[in-house]
Design brief:
The chain has 183 residues and is an all-beta fold. Helices cover 0% and strands 48% of the residues.
Length: 183
């Protein structure tokens, strides 16, 4: 499955040109049995084919292209994407909920764009595994191997994205991703 990444409420005001939306990463849908019952699982497929150089230290990099990272978040922790201009997209785990907060990104084009999207993790585990894939203006968060997914559009004023963690975050791996343009 591939999804449309936009929102009808502000789709025509998105600050991009020449197009106004994008498609999500491809995923395979299946049903998974969990302690909370049977749930929809969205497994990311094919991304490994786009992996480029492995990143030795994600928090020392400036990203001007797509990348992915895998991390374990414990209670009251976060991974933050930011720029030197003050833009922020925060992925956090608080009180059993993974959230993506884009309130401090470019939001002046529509009042409904500033938002926090969230996913309540069944069973409120002590830790959650997140796989974060970031492109120019889209971040996709796959929670616990796709048992939960948050896809967010975001717009930063500067192209160079940095990553920092807050709290007991364990970033286990990261990769630069190759472009699919021209393939």
């Amino acid at each position: 499955m591939i999804g449309w990444v936009n929102n009808w409420t502000y789709g025509n005001q998105i600050p991009t040109s020449p197009w106004r939306s994008a498609m999500s990463l491809p995923r395979e849908l299946s049903l998974a049995r969990t302690s909370a019952g049977i749930v929809l699982q969205q497994k990311l497929v094919g991304l490994e084919n786009l992996r480029g150089e492995k990143i030795a230290s994600i928090e020392k990099e400036k990203f001007n292209g797509p990348f992915e990272l895998t991390a374990t978040l414990s209670e009251e922790t976060a991974v933050e994407l930011f720029t030197d201009a003050g833009d922020r997209l925060v992925i956090s785990y608080v009180e059993g909920t993974v959230s993506a907060d884009r309130v401090k990104t470019k939001t002046d084009f529509h009042p409904d764009f500033a938002s926090v999207e969230s996913y309540e993790v069944p069973g409120y585990p002590a830790t959650v595994k997140v796989r974060l894939v970031v492109d120019q203006s889209i971040a996709e968060v796959f929670i616990n191997d796709g048992l939960g997914v948050i896809t967010e559009q975001f717009y930063f004023q500067q192209p160079a994205i940095k990553v920092k963690s807050a709290g007991d975050v364990k970033i286990t791996e990261g990769y630069h991703l190759k472009s699919v343009w021209g393939k």
